[in-house]
Amino acid sequence: MPEGDTVLQTARRLHTALAGQVLIRSDLRVPRFATADLTGRTVLDVTPRGKHLLTRIEGGLTLHSHLRMDGSWKVYAPGERWTGGPGHQIRAVLGNATRTAVGYRLPVLELLRTADETKVVGHLGPDLLGPDWDAGTALLNLLRDPARPLGEALLDQRNLAGIGNVYKSELCFLLQATPWLPVGDLPAETAARLPELAKKLLEANRDRPARVTTGSGRPGQRLYVYGRAPRPCLRCRTPIRVADQGDGSRERPTYWCPSCQHGPAPRPYAKQPPTIR
């Protein structure tokens, strides 16, 4: 699942393959930009911003893409078979003399002026893996709506950019709070360390092929709660639980330990007191 660390790794691969090279192939397979021709232009850089990718191209252009749930960019050498998915899932092809980048299942793909990048990423909060990171601003953003459930606040990219469903569940576990606890009910000390804990998790995984939040690289023990229901909690052996969380339009499976984490939970699991030990 693409989150801030995955997007950063993707940006690195694309930058290595494309930056400084002249495009000899350009194919944007979305109706609005199907006639755009980027051949003959040099790719300047590929920059991640939260979960967004900004491929900057000579002439003041930026190709903006977002992976969301299952989008991906693959890089191939000349003559190498494209294996990222069937042809009808390809949304973009950018090629130079030595490498070809192919974007599969990209739900967001648009060509815009580089000067207008703020229109697509200007709403984002501080980027956990970016040069604009500011823990104080991120904390103020998170606490701006104290009644909002912690899990929803963490996923809101306007508060801080880069957290997805995996890190949401893992952060809530490490904070010993259920994702449904109002963010304003977090003890002050817990809330104060939240932004830097989030940054620490993403930075620890920015170079790893598989995410690890537990410190163990053993299969089945890399994550505390995400994807582990109904297996026993790695700390207390209580079965991990899963339930949907969201605003009704975008429900996401959310994992937690009913013993290690404290606060409200969705029915029929709402048995924990809304306080943190």
Automatic annotation (TrEMBL):
Q: Any idea where the Formamidopyrimidine-DNA glycosylase catalytic domain is?
A: 2-121
What keywords appear on the UniProt entry? DNA damage, DNA repair, DNA-binding, Glycosidase, Hydrolase, Lyase, Metal-binding, Multifunctional enzyme, Zinc, Zinc-finger
Name the record gives this protein: DNA-(apurinic or apyrimidinic site) lyase
Top-level division of the source organism's lineage: Bacteria
Q: Which organism is it from?
A: Streptomyces aureus
Q: Where is this region: Disordered?
A: 244-277
- Recorded family membership: Belongs to the FPG family.
Transmembrane helix is among the record's keywords = no
State the EC number(s): 4.2.99.18
Q: Does the keyword DNA damage apply?
A: yes
Where are the annotated coiled coils located? Answer: none
What InterPro entries does this protein map onto?
FPG_cat, FPG_N, H2TH_FPG, Nei2_N, Ribosomal_uS13-like_H2TH, Znf_DNA_glyclase/AP_lyase
The first-level EC class reads lyase
Q: The FPG-type domain covers which part of the protein?
A: 224-262
